[in-house]
Amino acid sequence: MLEIENLTHIYGGGGPSAHHAIDQLNLSVAEGELLCIVGPSGCGKSTLLRSIAGLITPTGGRIKVDGELVRQTPDNLAVVFQDYSRSLFPWMSVADNVALPLRRKNMDKKRRREAAAEALESVGLSGAGRKYPFQLSGGMQQRVAIARALAYRPTLMLMDEPFGSVDAQTREDLEDLVLKVRGHHKMTIVLITHDIDESVYVGDRVVVLSKAPAHVVADLQVDLPSPRDQINTREHPDFVHLRAEVGRLVRGQPVAH
Amino acid sequence: MNAPVLTRSPLARPRSSRWARRVTGALAFAALVEIAGRAGLAEFLPPASEILQRAAALLFDEGFRAHAGTSVLAWAIGLAVAALVAVPLGVLFGSVPVIDAATRAIVEFLRPIPSVALIPLVALLIGTGLQLRVTLVIYAAVWPILYNTMYGLRGVDPVARESLRSYGFGRLSVLWWVSLPSAAPFIMTGFRLATGVALILTVSTEIVAGRGEGIGVFIYFAGIAVPARMDDILAGVVWVGLFGVVVNALLVAAERRLFRWHHTRVGGGS
């Protein structure tokens, strides 16, 4: 589904102020997988995501989505950004926000509206369509951003620290929302986070990146029973073990066995 | 189904108290002028009641109405043309850095020239008719619109633009769906500032030209009459000021209504 080969990105073109964000990163994600990428702050996670989305052109390496080399934004890809207050359009109603990307899909107005209503319902916001983003709480705004991605029916959904700006309770609700919607929509999800617990709780697989320039330090399979549950999963011995292991890897400490 | 929640902008104070304060201020000022006029503090200054009476009387004066109509026409044409020129230019400069850099020197040279200083030059070139006023109004009104449009476009949130780009929207689509709506409140503010500048230019051009029709011409003739008609001068000024205040108030109201999302955000959220 997603293949990344020797991805390298240097900002600022080799001058003295150049920043080497990613170095020779290799990664592949299977169809339908939910991959979490964790790494220390400023390690180039967002650069990686923006490269996959075709928003920036990496200085080296190749990215393929569905076997196609990424040159521009791939079709059937949706991104959920961390900052919902900036990624939603405040001048549009919630329903219009969700429906706007569907203009790319040759859908008439009626079908766009139906798809938006359906997506809003699937994130628990049916009835909020006529409101404006500023009239909703932060958690609800991020639900709208997720609904916008879902309505687009992407085969690959990228999430850039999607729950980084909401409180803990809302965060757990949104984590469960992602787990729920991936069951309904067949899609591959790549979720970037700096929250170690979150990566283990949500992911089928956790990839740990090094400090910048980022490369893959570890690639761990998460074999926790499903469906996951905020209380039971988090006290599961495998969860506790795995979060410790990921934590050490992120901090660059040797892994104890 | 929830009804949409109507949150009041944090900028909005209770309307009645705001108006009460404004009216009180205006009345106090009028009272001062009245006292100064009656006390003969300045022999040229008629009391406020006399000025306002004259202003009201002018409303029924066909000659004055013709003067006013000509001024408003020049003002409106000039503003409309300025907006048609400045908004596209501002969008271009604000979204294409190369063009912005290439034109910056000339823009920075022209901008500080007071438009009023151009009146004699332009009058020599094109005469003193309606075209003179319209030309100068366009010139003066272009700047605030151009600058605010550029400022608005440069300030478009890159995350908002990337959000749409990530769904495969091209440059022009992003401009249409994100950059323009996001810059719209700034463009509107620029236009509102331009209405005031345009009014100043209309009247001052008329005064300098000193012929034809227009409120400025009316004021000019009242000034050179022997003896000078101070009540006419000030009554004319009252009408110009009133016009400016009303236009500004209407546009502020329109901004609040159209760009509630913007004011809520700038005002620190709901």
Automatic annotation (TrEMBL), chain A:
<feature type="domain" description="ABC transporter">
    <location>
        <begin position="2"/>
        <end position="236"/>
    </location>
</feature>
<dbReference type="InterPro" id="IPR003439">
    <property type="entry name" value="ABC_transporter-like_ATP-bd"/>
</dbReference>
<dbReference type="Pfam" id="PF00005">
    <property type="entry name" value="ABC_tran"/>
</dbReference>
<keyword id="KW-0067">ATP-binding</keyword>
<dbReference type="GO" id="GO:0005524">
    <property type="term" value="F:ATP binding"/>
</dbReference>
<dbReference type="InterPro" id="IPR003593">
    <property type="entry name" value="AAA+_ATPase"/>
</dbReference>
<keyword id="KW-0813">Transport</keyword>
<dbReference type="InterPro" id="IPR017871">
    <property type="entry name" value="ABC_transporter-like_CS"/>
</dbReference>
<keyword id="KW-0547">Nucleotide-binding</keyword>
<protein>
    <submittedName>
        <fullName>ABC transporter ATP-binding protein</fullName>
    </submittedName>
</protein>
<dbReference type="InterPro" id="IPR027417">
    <property type="entry name" value="P-loop_NTPase"/>
</dbReference>
<dbReference type="InterPro" id="IPR050166">
    <property type="entry name" value="ABC_transporter_ATP-bind"/>
</dbReference>
